[in-house]
Amino acid sequence: MTIDRTALGFGTGERAVYAADPWSSRGRLFAEVSSPTRSDFQRDRDRIVHTTAFRRLKHKTQVFIGTDSDHYRTRLTHTIEVAQIARALARALKLDEDLAEGVALVHDFGHTPFGHTGEDALHDVLKPYGGFDHNAQSLRIVTKLERRYAEFDGLNLTWETLEGLVKHNGPLLTPQGEGTRGPVPKPIRDYCELHDLEIDTFASLEAQVAAIADDIAYNTHDIDDGLRSGYLTFEMLEDVPFLAGLMAEVHGLYPRLEASRFTHEITRRQITRMVEDVISVAQERLREIKPGCAADVRHADRVIATFSAGMAETDRQIKRLLFSRIYRHPDIMRIRAGAAQIVTDLFHAYMRDPSLMSSHYWVDHIAGLDQPAKARHVGDYLAGMTDTYAVNAHRRLFDRTPDLR
After folding, report:
1. Distance between CA atoms of 20 and 32, rounded to whole angstroms?
2. Burial annotation 190-207 (CB, 10 A radius, 16+ → b, else e)
3. To the nearest 5 percent, what fractions of the chain are helix, strand and coil?
4. How many helices (H) and strands (E) does the chain have?
5. For the whole model, what pTM was predicted?
6. Fewer CB within 10 Å: N-end or C-end of the chain?
7. What is the CATH number of the domain that holds 368?
8. Contact predicate 65/117, CB 8 Å
């Protein structure tokens, strides 16, 4: 019996010539028989959703640590919002929506507990052993640390999804072989020796829309959460002309709107304007570059899915506002210091006695490893923790655990 893919809906949507072709993937590190009911990119997305790493995102910090509110974004809800925006951009640009969504869903797998605070703390203690990079950690998770399949470690994702994960923010190497953002992390270099992800080129346009969707999502939802928390006020938003214009527009249409609805009307307009800006820029650059296939996108002389100059300035103004009013607020900085102490204390405790990592899959073998190998396992264990798991682990091992409220 054979299955008619077109009868299932495959191939019915118009796909641009520069889109990634789900039926002509470069394949997986370990060869597998293709599915008769799903494209390879659909299978990647589905594998990502069913991982332990994906579930852990629900208890990992986005911005606000240890709050009493159920309504602030977590790393999981942020990821879902990114995926929605990435899929909308992909559809507008006639790309493969499943690949764009898959890259968006996996892009934050490597984040530690406590957001960027945890990442900074873990990087500091791992500096003697190569440091820590959440993007490289995401690659380790999907190629090594997820242990779900009998025939291989990781998820055995397609080349295109792994490329998008590693390069969604742009090439990691210049044509001359120099790092574009510093040295290329060792986990990425090691994997590329087995399965070359061509880190000196741009990623697919699907990965590019996932990357810009990340910026759109957190710029918007951090404003929403900032207003909810009280760290931001509507008066503070006036410092950004783009946001001031949105507020004036909403106020003109609905002069007596309650604060919660007023916030939603602002943020949904913000997403719409930013998405439309990216679509307009991408369409213009596609007309200029005229890519005839996905490879032409990778070898273009510039990123295609990005903001216009005006919206890029708005993006910088919003980030400055968020840094000054939220990310560097004294209350947040106090909580961040406590979170960093938890990560640092746990690292040193596990390095002294690896048997304390009782649930780590390699715990029986770690004691015999050299220091760099042992440190990498401890880093894997810590990076995989949720906020709540890290706090509880610290309470079991130490007399005093910082209060993250």
Report:
1. 19
2. ebbeeeebbbbbbbbbbb
3. 60, 0, 40
4. 18, 0
5. 0.94
6. N
7. 1.10.3210.10
8. yes
| Residue 274 in domain | yes
* CA atoms of 282 and 202, how far apart (whole Å): 14
Burial of 40 (0-12, 13-18, 19+ CB in 10 A): buried
Residues 294-331 pLDDT 10s: 999 999 999 999 999 999 999 999 999 999 999 889 98
264 inside domain:
yes
Residue 8 has pLDDT above 50, yes or no: no
Q: Give me the residue label for tokens 């990592």.
A: 357
Write the DSSP assignment of 121-166 as a string of letters.
Answer: HHHHHHGGGT---HHHHHHHIIIII----SS-SS---BHHHHHHHH
DSSP state of 324: I
Q: Kindly report the CA angle at 285 between 170 and 304, in degrees rounded to 5?
A: 15
DSSP string, 204-270: -HHHHHHHHHHHHHHHHHHHHHHHHHTSS-HHHHTTSHHHHHHHHHHHHH-TT--HHHHHHHHHHHH
DSSP 185: P
Please give the angle made by the CA atoms of 128, 187 and 159, to the nearest 5 degrees.
165
Containing 190, the helix (H) or strand (E) segment is: helix 186-194
What 3-state class would DSSP assign to 74?
Answer: strand
Number of domains into which the chain is organized: 1
Q: What does the alpha-carbon distance between residue 185 and residue 119 come to, in Å, rounded to a whole number?
A: 14
Amino acid at 357: M
Nearest of 404, 353, 352, 358 to residue 381 by alpha carbon: 358
3-state SS, residue 61: strand
Q: Angle at Cα 186 formed by Cα 32 and Cα 122, nearest 5°? A: 110
Could you give the CA distance from residue 318 to residue 287 in angstroms, rounded to a whole number? 30
User: Which range of residues forms the domain containing residue 270?
Assistant: 14-405
Whether 3 is in a domain gets the answer no
Do the domain assignments include residue 318? yes
Decide if 326 contacts 222 (C-beta within 8 A). Answer: yes
